[in-house]
Design goal:
Blueprint (H helix, E strand, L loop, with lengths): L5 H12 L2 H13 L15 E2 L8 E6 L5 E6 L5 H13 L5 H5 L5 H4 L8 H22 L3
């Protein structure tokens, strides 16, 4: 899976090789591990809402001077599956470059084998999160 950052590729491989009954437990772990928003983003200032998600979901990507990307996600704990998508991205993309993030395959969740574990509606929401994240990164690159 050389078309994505090494951390993300490792997570994808773990999910893809896990038995179906373990996948939901793994998602819950990622949901629980979501870092809190910094105080300056507490009111979702400067964050983009992802309306494709059934629950309120906000994200922000910032391209740093060294071409790495910092991401922030906010999703209520009552939406563990959607929150897990954010947790996977937060961990898997930590320290990734703009090129690595833009190269993440759009079918990421299918590669993880999530189609057998969660509903298509949830996967569509997760895919929208990734698409909006990539769009934010690309928009910050175009003025350069």
């Amino acid at each position: 899976m050389s078309d994505m950052p090494p951390k993300l590729a490792e997570i994808v491989d773990e999910f893809a090789s896990a038995p179906r009954e373990v996948v939901l437990e793994m998602l819950i772990e990622f949901s629980d591990a979501m870092p809190p928003l910094p105080a300056e983003l507490a009111g979702h200032d400067g964050m983009e809402q992802v309306p494709e998600c059934q629950t309120q979901f906000f994200l922000k990507a910032t391209v740093n001077p060294d071409d790495t990307v910092t991401t922030w996600f906010d999703c209520p704990p009552e939406a563990p599956t959607t929150r897990a998508f954010a947790g996977v991205l937060a961990e898997g993309l930590e320290g990734a470059s703009t090129a690595e993030i833009l190269a993440v395959p759009d079918d990421l969740y299918a590669r993880m084998g999530l189609g057998q574990a969660i509903s298509p509606l949830r996967i569509r929401g997760g895919s929208a999160i990734l698409a909006r994240l990539k769009r934010q990164v690309a928009a910050q690159l175009s003025p350069r």
